[in-house]
Amino acid sequence: MNVRSLTRGLCSAAAAATLTFASATIAIAETITVTDIAGRVVEVEKNPSKVVIGEGRMIYSIALLDQDNPFQRVVGWKDDMVRADPDAYRKYLAVYPDIADLPSFGSPYADEWNLEAVISLGTEVVLMNLGSLLKAQESGIIDKLEEAGIATVFVDFRQDPTQNTIPSIQLLGRIFDKRDEADAFGDYYQAQMKLIYARVQGIADKDKPIVFIERAAGYNPGACCRTFGAANLGRLVDLSGGRNWGSLKSPGFSTAVSLEAIFADDPDVIIGTGANWAEINPATEAVLFGYDADEAMVQDRLSILASREGWPELSAVKNGRFHSVYHQFYNSPYHFVAMQAFAKWMHPELFEDIDPDATMKELHDNFLPIDYSGVFWGSLKAGG
């Protein structure tokens, strides 16, 4: 019997005993008061056994804490990881086959969400993303959950990742009673970030290249372009020793831009983002990064993107500074790996000894229940 089945069996036995022996002493669950990343003071059950996650990709973070089984307390989720990162889903599915039966409730901020089903599961906590706070407030879902005795907690790995990743991990560590694991990852995260910060401080502004990030490059063939403003991956570029082109154009999280503006400015470095979107969009020309990716595919897709009309004339393509990276780093506590890749692309001599691939392997070996495989970033090779 696996751990999850055993846990379910014990919970069922305990519930039956409570119903059968009404006079027995009932253990009262311990609650703690926390301040979530939205600044909300929330009373939540400590070490909950039934959690619903408002986005499936929160598993990236939960896996750092519940390392034996990241799904052991998850009773429902949104299926975005299944659809947008199927490589990761299959990787976890191979180790935890029960997740094939995990209920999907869609978006908790939309009418499709089945609140009754969430309540019927005995859910104790619902985790939501900070970026959807306004939607959650407008939909009234927070109040409805509170009326049902279910705590709502907001975390953030996307809106302001460098500021909110460690507080979010620490918050989950407190709630899940996994503070040691949260501290261990926090120490590792800080060490990896400082490898970059310590060197970037000495780079003069005039030596920082202009970097254009093409968000979801090639997702829809023929459509271009969206980029990150002074947030998320755009902010990570700035912290890695570059000047994010999008930050100069918009303060927003993400913005649409014209090809004419990109061609006119001719940025020094171009970084696209990609993931395995082929299963939800078979026509995509994106680089299908993930646990199932291989180098041949990466080069083929990079060549396609660099060959789009007008792109071969850009300096970044001509000078071998055309790259791409795993899109899901934008919503993951693992973004320090992407930053190491960025830093090497922008300042190869200064960061010659930094090895993002070794970092990614170390992350998996020390903190995650799945092994490292696949490809998560790449650069267009000469003649590609």
What topology emerges from the helices and strands here?
Layout: H1 3-20, E1 31-35, E2 41-45, E3 51-53, H2 59-62, E4 74-77, H3 80-84, H4 86-95, H5 115-120, E5 125-129, H6 133-139, H7 141-147, E6 151-155, H8 161-175, H9 179-200, E7 210-214, E8 226-228, H10 232-239, E9 243-244, H11 245-249, E10 254-256, H12 259-265, E11 269-274, H13 295-306, H14 315-318, E12 322-326, H15 335-346, H16 356-367, E13 377-379
Parallel strand pairs: 3-4, 3-5, 5-6, 7-9, 7-11, 11-12
Antiparallel strand pairs: 1-2, 8-10, 12-13
What this model shows, in words?
- The protein is α/β, with parallel strands linked by helices.
- The protein has two domains: 3-7 and 23-188, 3-Layer(aba) Sandwich (Rossmann fold); 203-379, 3-Layer(aba) Sandwich (Rossmann fold).
- It has helices at 3-20, 59-62, 80-84, 86-95, 115-120, 133-139, 141-147, 161-175, 179-200, 232-239, 245-249, 259-265, 295-306, 315-318, 335-346, 356-367, and strands at 31-35, 41-45, 51-53, 74-77, 125-129, 151-155, 210-214, 226-228, 243-244, 254-256, 269-274, 322-326, 377-379.
- A five-stranded mixed sheet has the order 9-7-11-12-13, sandwiched between helices.
- A hairpin with a 5-residue loop joins strand 1 (31-35) and strand 2.
- The longest helix is centred in the middle third of the chain and has 22 residues, at 179-200.
- The chain starts with a helix and ends in a 5-residue tail after the last strand.
